[in-house]
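Slide 14.
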Amino acid sequence: MQKLAYALEFEKPLRDLAREIESLHQKALEQNLDLRAATGELDKKLAEMRREIYSNLTPWQRVQIARHPKRPYALDYINAICEGFQELHGDRQFNDDRALIGGTAFFNGESVMIIAQQKGRDTKENILRNFGMPQPEGYRKALRLMKLAERFHLPVITFIDTPGAYPGIESEARHVSEAIAVNLREMAMLRVPSIAVVVGEGGSGGALGIGVTDRVLTFENSYYSVISPEGCAAILWKDRAAASKAAEALKLSAATLEKLGVVDEVIAEPMGGAHNDPAQAISALKYALHKHLNDLRGLDTEKLLDTRYERYRRLGVYEEAGVVHS
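Slide 15: predicted structure.
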């Protein structure tokens, strides 16, 4: 029986039923009663309820799962699928942004460059990591590492997990928009294979600043969007409480993104989210990365660049009154 130590709003019926089953088990032990028939029926009901809920998740519910505090973060995946990760620090201009980490590692015995947005598990680490919101120096560090990868012919793997770049005054003063814009340009011309994986939140330009890659993968319950649902709701409906309506309108769920060609593959998660079985999620990610890296290594540099150009050129096609625009 799966316990829900931390339950999201829509998971509370599951938690309440699980507690009822646990209470019956405890009563059976204490009073030496045979309650197997009763608990068996409740176990079946719990399993059916779980299937019903997780098979019909709304975009807003998937956003909540993407933000789950127990969800694996970038370093969890890096430490599980890579060997010898050597973190490299600083942008050589201002500071070392701990919200965006990077360095060399071995993936399946091959050297790669890792760049990742990292959140914290508790208040102290979240302050250190700035809640996963990079500042300009984070994006400049990422660019420095990408150029280093290019020099030594290392594939680049990025892990996206941010609500957005840090919007504070200091960040604006150090030109966060310019830092992201430069990354977009330089990643488009990077002469080595690159893959981005959205492991949790993929918010706005903060995500895109390390996301212009040859392949973009996303976990089933991650989201990738031009703005957070709350930000969109505040602008369109003047009420952040309309976030669920905004999530629906933004088309930010993984399946929709794959259909639109924004992402190249959706990585399946265990029922209820990657936090319920991190080992399964890690295994699925490792397989997907291995497959896509093998594909990209087979392309010469000019073909790689041409294919990347065509990938992004296809985005943004829409239809109006029967006429296709792009």
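Speaker note: The first strand starts at residue 83 and ends at 87.
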